Amino acid sequence: MCPLPRQLLHYAAAVEPPDFDACPVLLTQPAEDRWTPHHLRAPALSRITKVPVDTVMLDNSGHYPLEDPGLQQMEDAIGRTA
């Protein structure tokens, strides 16, 4: 196994989630993502309270959603927020 770069082990966000107020947040979460499943992302997202946060689950998609219907669902979600 490859060791993580030192900067990943000591990462500090420029803005903590409770202080984030720059823009709405859209998470397009692949439903079949085994690398970063939704339950790992939810704690940080739940701490963002100063802007709207929306999560769209992408059906039948893995970590990098290249397949439909997830790819189309991601494109549609982004289009609705643009």
Helical element count?
Answer: 3
**Residue ranges: pLDDT <50 for 5 or more in a row?**
none
| Widest sheet: strand ordering | 1-2
Largest sheet: 2 strands, parallel
Q: What general outline do the C-alpha atoms trace?
A: globular
Rounded to an integer in angstroms, the radius of gyration calculated over CA atoms is 15 Å
Q: Could you tell me the mean pLDDT?
A: 90
Annotation, overall tally of beta strands: 2
Q: Which percent bin holds the helix content? A: 25-40%
Helices and strands, in order, run as: HEHEH
- The amount of beta strand, in percent, is 5-15%
Can you characterise this structure?
The chain contains three helices and two strands, in the order αβαβα. The protein is globular. With 82 residues, it is α+β, with helices and mostly antiparallel strands. It starts with 5 loop residues before the first helix and ends with a helix. The mean pLDDT is 90. α2 (38-46) links the parallel β1 and β2 (53-58).
SSE diagram, text form:
Blueprint: H1 6-9, E1 25-30, H2 38-46, E2 53-58, H3 70-81
Parallel strand pairs: 1-2
Short key terms for the protein model shown above:
82 residues; alpha+beta; two-stranded parallel ribbon; globular
In short:
This protein has 82 residues and is of the alpha+beta class.
